[in-house]
Amino acid sequence: MIDLETADRGARDAWIVGLRPPRNAVDPLRPNGFFVEDEPRPGGGTDRVATILLTDRECPWRCLMCDLWKNTLETPTPGGAIPAQIRFALERLPFANVLKLYSAGSFFDRAAIPKEDEAEIASLSRGFERVVVESHPALVGDATLRFRDLLGGPQLEVAIGLETANEEILRRLDKEMTVAQFQAAASFLLRNQISLRVFALVGLPFLRKEEWPAATRASIALSLRARARVVSLIPTRLGNGALEELHRNGHFEPPTLRDLEMALEDFLEGEEGRGPAAGIVVADLWDADALEAPACCRAARIERLRSMNLLQRHLPLPLSSSLSPLCLQHFDLP
User: Fold this and answer.
1) Around 263, how many Cα atoms within 13 Å sit in the side-chain half-sphere?
2) Cα separation of 75 and 83, whole Å?
3) How confident is the model at residue 322 (pLDDT cuts 50, 70, 90)?
4) Share of residues in the chain with pLDDT > 90 (%)
5) Is pLDDT at 324 greater than 70 in this prediction?
């Protein structure tokens, strides 16, 4: 294993890519997935959100914890492919008032989303109140303003993977981003009437487990100071090769469902009395059943998190005769 603290970007990238499992076969004319789910609004209420997982060119950055490359193209995305994917999904999805166009990298990377397709993408998005796309801070700029203007009606929101407010860990994640760069991108969006969404990791490599809560709190605080509309807490998962290697070498412990629960509980319990304009914090429940948890209560605990996301308040775990002693211990239940 290389020294990720001292290795240069080229060496880190080569090490990360060399540990990858095989890429999945994908169709450039079909999205990787699409679904509709509920999401809370800051200040109250609920949005119906249609998410389309786009099939596009892999991100130019090789972040240590990322596994999105598994469903990407190895060559630049063909012209017309992204609009075709969006049409395919929208024809099959129920009503929603918010649209997330989530690529495997950055929406403003022209190898991923061809510039010539932007106008058609904007046209397909016009029936929504808000459109959310993802981007690395380095690509937030003129292309962002151009897409905002092409949208015409819907509010544009840009999601940025801050991952962590810890500068040292951020560097070792091979994110090629500093906290200052995140803040500059957030400020740019705010000045140009574009909303900000932030992804923050729960369970960081290179930190002891007892350090995770403070790191998560710092990431949430930084995001909300940057005026994030939504902060999504994402458990760092095994599956990309590099994290397995770190796990074998004692540099990473996969977070459990309880770790994700505690991260959201910690925020909600400490934020009573927030103003109505404050941003919201949610636990990302994508593939949550893969997180370690007792089988007897996993489903109930995931549903509890889903309700806490929507209501933005702490809820008790419903008592059940099927709860194991381990569950009782986790939640201090009688």
Assistant:
1) 36
2) 18
3) low
4) 85
5) no
- Cα–Cα distance for residue pair 209/292, rounded to 1 Å: 15
Number of residues in the chain: 334
Instruction: Count other Cβ atoms within 10 Å, centred on residue 254.
Output: 17
* pTM, rounded to two decimals: 0.93
The rounded distance, in Å, linking the Cα atoms of 118 and 152 is 12
Exposure b/e, 145-184, CB count within 10 A at least 16 = b: eebbebbeebbbbbbbbbbbbbeebbbbbbbbbebebbee
Q: Which domains does the chain have, with CATH numbers?
A: 9-315+325-331 (3.20.20.70)
Mean pLDDT computed over 125-130:
96
Q: Are 86 and 101 in contact (CB under 8 A)?
A: yes
Rounded Cα–Cα distance for residues 212 and 235 (Å): 11
In the predicted model, what is the mean pLDDT of residues 66-82? 95
Q: 259 with 228: CB under 8 angstroms? A: no
How far apart, in whole angstroms, are the C-alpha atoms of residue 109 and residue 136? 9
Residue 10 burial (10 A CB sphere; 0-12, 13-18, 19+): exposed
Q: By CB neighbour count within 10 A (0-12 exposed, 13-18 middle, 19+ buried), where does 202 fall?
A: buried
Rounded-to-integer distance, Cα 161 and Cα 197, Å: 9
Q: Which of 269, 252, 268 is nearest to 309 (CA)?
A: 268
Decide if 263 contacts 236 (C-beta within 8 A): no
- For residue 135, give both structure tokens: 């981007």
When the pLDDT of each residue in the chain is averaged and rounded to a whole number, the result is: 92
Cβ pair 32, 58 in contact under 8 A? no
Q: How far is Cα 62 from Cα 4, in angstroms, rounded to an integer?
A: 13
**Burial (CB count <10 Å: 0-12, 13-18, 19+), residue 295:** exposed
Range name among 42-51, 193-202, 256-265, 266-275 with the lowest pLDDT average = 266-275
